[in-house]
Specification:
Strand content: 5-15%
Radius of gyration: 31 Å
Number of strands: 11
Number of helices: 6
């Protein structure tokens, strides 16, 4: 009885790491750890799978030296064809059941991990892709904090100053769509659309910091003109009139965040943005 060859340790290690990478992708997706975790785990799974297959392929060798046999043009004689088949099937390809089982487990783990993103299409908690794009974690009563996690009062901003803020307890790396820019202007100068009169506190107005053209951060403010500017493609937004675009390729206003204050005088959101943030091409009618 032919003895089963011992499986190469390097192949088993690579396949094992590929399984761990696939499991890591599934865990990072469920916990929503962000694109970096997604890429490292799933990319690592495929990389270790490829490495294991490459090491395995090194075990496939030709026992006899290669040579060229001169022969006439035409079909091979039956005995020569049979000899070729015998030589082909007798190559020392490792047939370890452990290796094949490990390969099957690796492919199953990667396949299962790739299916995890489909949960967003079917589970109620995830919602449809359109619903996820249209909403952010901002909600009623959620405090505004700066990049150091410090809460903010309206008086912390001087007139014609700007400040970037985030929702308390929400990672801006996981949810960059929550990034908001606050601008404080003279309350009497505001000409916001009807129904937004109570969205401002002492002249402090909040807008999404993601440009509605290509999603770049709108980080420049021209105090003399009360305009926010996107440095990528030079779209200008009128702060006083609800951040409507007045120049550049942006076609939608920056979504506005309704603001209020809590019992201690700190700024809080009173709801989500009034529209989808960032590049709006996905929401345009076709």
């Amino acid at each position: 009885m032919r003895r089963e060859p011992a499986p190469p340790a390097g192949v088993l290690v690579c396949f094992g790491l590929a399984v761990l990478g696939a499991v890591g992708f599934a865990v990072s997706y469920v916990l929503n750890l962000g694109n970096v975790a997604f890429g490292l785990s799933l990319g690592g799974a495929f990389a270790f799978l490829a490495a294991g297959l490459a090491i395995w392929s090194k075990r496939i060798e030709v026992r006899e030296p290669q040579y060229v046999e001169e022969r006439a043009v035409g079909p091979s004689p039956p005995q020569q064809f049979e000899a070729f088949q015998e030589a082909l099937t007798s190559q020392p390809v490792p047939r370890s059941r452990v290796l094949w089982s490990m390969l099957g487990l690796t492919l199953a783990a990667i396949g299962g991990a790739v299916l995890f993103p489909l949960r967003s299409l079917f589970l109620k908690e995830g919602g449809s892709p359109d619903a996820i794009l249209e909403h952010t974690p901002w909600s009623k009563g959620l405090p505004l904090v700066d990049e150091d996690g410090k809460r903010i009062r309206p008086g912390d901003l001087t007139y014609d100053s700007v400040k970037t803020v985030f929702p308390a307890g929400v990672s801006s790396r996981v949810h960059p769509d929550t990034t908001t820019v606050l601008v404080r202007v003279e309350p009497a100068s505001l000409q916001l659309p009807a129904g937004r009169e109570n969205w401002v506190v002492d002249g402090v107005v909040g807008y999404s910091k993601l440009c509605t053209h290509a999603g770049c951060p709108v980080g420049l403010y021209a105090a003399d003109y009360r305009q926010l500017m996107c440095p990528c493609h030079h779209s200008l937004f009128d702060v006083l009139r609800g951040a409507v675009p007045i120049e550049g390729p942006a076609a939608r206003p920056l979504p506005q965040l309704p603001l209020g204050v809590d019992a201690d005088g700190y700024l809080v959101a009173t709801g989500d943005f009034n529209g989808p943030v960032g590049a709006g091409w996905w929401g345009l009618p076709t």
